[in-house]
Amino acid sequence: MRKAVVFGTALAVALAGCAGVAVAQNAGGEAAPAAAGPAGPPPGMPQPITMAQRPGVIGGEALYVEYCIACHGPNGMGTGLLQRAGRPEPLLEARGGLPAQFIITAARNGIGNMPAIPRGEVSDEQLQAIADYLAAGPHAVAGGA
Ligand code: HEC
């Protein structure tokens, strides 16, 4: 009988320990999304910039948001690599004095780790508009680097 009590107590302590771990894991936040519905990015992940964040943009700026900002936004790998390369302003939009022709050549041929962007993706007219927009910088970028 006494043995049973001791065993029971040990079991209760062990179970309580497990429950504590489970509670601690849940306390970490909404880490475990239910299988149903889209999980979304983990909390704290930088959100990609899309037209939704910059409604109302037009012309070269809109094309830049569509085709370039995934890599050249504040958290983009293009911005990161340009920062590592020591550019005074790694955000292309916030940089002044970028010649349009340099932008066009870089985008068409690729540059360093940036892949070439073919005409099937961005037409000459569209790239010209993007280059004119960037060359007219520096632009004030909301929520920039
Ligand atoms: C797939 C990601 C990606 C996309 C999309 C992208 N870029 Fe880039 N871009 C990069 C990376 C990475 C670099 C840095 C290259 C290096 O130095 O290795 C770069 C560098 C550049 C540079 C050179 C800047 C400098 O100071 O040397 C220009 C100009 C540029 N990109 C323009 C554009 C334009 C315009 C677009 C849209 C039409 C665009 N990029 C889209 C990744 C991208």
UniProtKB/TrEMBL annotation:
Residues 1-24 form the signal peptide. The keyword Metal-binding applies. Residues 55-138 form the Cytochrome c domain. Keywords: Heme, Iron, Metal-binding, Signal. Coiled coil: none annotated. It comes from the Bacteria. The keyword Glycoprotein does not apply. It holds the Pfam family Cytochrome_CBB3. This is C-type cytochrome. It comes from Alteraurantiacibacter palmitatis.
